[in-house]
Amino acid sequence: MRLIGIDLGTKTMGIAITDSLKMLATGLENFTYRDNDLNSCVAKVRNLLQRYQNDVETIVLGYPLNVNNTKNERTYLVEHFQKLLQNDITIPIVLQDERYTTIAATARLKFDVGLKSSQIKKHKDKISAVIILEEYINKS
């Protein structure tokens, strides 16, 4: 069974998935949505679950906290999105601390892959979702 990782931003949602052994996470896509249109994000997740036909056991949702563990606007956005998802799907949704994942994703794309700044923006959200999954797998 696979895991889906999500990095929810204010305009994009990075999506990643593991292999069936949960050893390797791969970026799927950056889904762009209109401001506050979380219903389109829920529909996207529902479509992914249909695409992978009962092969996803858990959704790992990036949980953005401040460095001092306090919540911010994005934290509340993610909590709202989690509730919307829970009302629509039956598989478990777990929250994974996502502090520094965007920084790590940007560094990976710049130094490991050699992308230029203009190209990094196109990929960083799905790579952040990969890192969220990797961190979840490593702590499990």
Short characterization:
The protein is an alpha/beta fold and 140 residues long. Helix content is 46%, strand content 25%.
Alpha-beta classification? alpha/beta
Low-confidence parts, pLDDT < 50 over ≥5 residues? none
Spatial strand arrangement across the major sheet: 3-2-1-4-5
**Mean of residue pLDDT values:** 93
Query: What is the C-alpha radius of gyration, as a whole number of Å?
Result: 14 Å
Q: With helices defined by DSSP (H or I, 4 residues minimum), what is the helix count?
A: 4
Order of helices and strands: EEEHEHEHH
Count of individual beta strands: 5
Please characterize this protein's 3D structure.
The protein is built from four helices and five strands; from the N terminus they run βββαβαβαα. The radius of gyration is 14 Å and the shape is globular. It has 140 residues and is α/β, with parallel strands linked by helices. The mean pLDDT is 93. A five-stranded mixed sheet has the order 3-2-1-4-5, with helices on both faces. 46% of the residues lie in helices and 25% in strands.
Question: Could you outline the blueprint of secondary structure elements for this entry?
Answer:
Blueprint: E1 2-8, E2 12-18, E3 25-32, H1 38-51, E4 56-63, H2 73-88, E5 93-97, H3 101-112, H4 117-139
Parallel strand pairs: 1-4, 4-5
Antiparallel strand pairs: 1-2, 2-3
